Amino acid sequence: MTAIFRGPITGPKAFAIFSSFFVVIIAVNIVLAVQAVRTFPGLEVKNSYVASQTFDAERRAQEALRWTAGAQIEAGELILTLESLDGRPVADAEVAAVLGRATVRDADQVPEFIFDGADWRAPVNVGPGQWHLALDLRAADGTAFRQRLDILVE
């Protein structure tokens, strides 16, 4: 053993132990804070008040479409299922989306969808884990349909 660990606990030794504890805690907090700021993907909207002014009207218009969206990834292909209330596929929509991870934007992809008669399909390059698909669709009449879908890739 070294000399510092021998003998009784004195005032300077107690202070060294006590201050070492806080140095470790503060160092860990600084590392975590730097990582949190470095990986923050940004704001959803620049001004939440302005965005809130049209939220209810946009939500009612989207609900009036009565669309149901679902997504999955199989063999490197993103499959978006978009159905109307009667269960028929929606073929006349403008489809735009961003596929990415929840906390970092480095893996974000903008899939190029093609309608195959039943589903919207796009090739994607993804690894295993949780992915998020942010849909921004437009109906033929211009009504916006926005939704976020979680996709788990095994």
Question: Reading side by side through the largest sheet, how are the strands ordered?
Answer: 1-2-5-4
H and E string: HHHEEEEEEE
Radius of gyration: 26 Å
Question: Strand percentage, roughly?
Answer: 25-35%
By helix and strand content, what is the structural category? alpha+beta
Average predicted local confidence, pLDDT: 92
Number of domains: 2
Q: How many strands, what sense, and barrel or not for the largest sheet?
A: 4 strands, antiparallel
- The strand count comes to 7
Specify the helix fraction band: 25-40%
CATH class of the largest domain: Mainly Beta
Rough shape? elongated
CATH architecture of the largest domain: Sandwich
CATH topology (level 3) name of the largest domain:
Immunoglobulin-like
Determine the N-to-C terminus distance.
Answer: 50 Å
Unreliable stretches covering 5 or more consecutive residues: none
Structural descriptors:
single chain, 154 residues, alpha+beta, Immunoglobulin-like, 2 domains, 4-stranded antiparallel β-sheet, 3-stranded antiparallel β-sheet, 7 strands, 29% helix
Folded structure, characterized:
It is a single chain. The protein is an alpha+beta fold. It folds into two domains: 9-38; 48-153, Sandwich (Immunoglobulin-like). Helix content is 29%, strand content 31%. A four-stranded antiparallel beta sheet has the order 1-2-5-4, with no helix packed on it. Strands 3-6-7 form a three-stranded antiparallel beta sheet. A hairpin with a 2-residue loop joins strand 1 and strand 2. It is elongated. The model has no long low-confidence stretch (mean pLDDT 92).
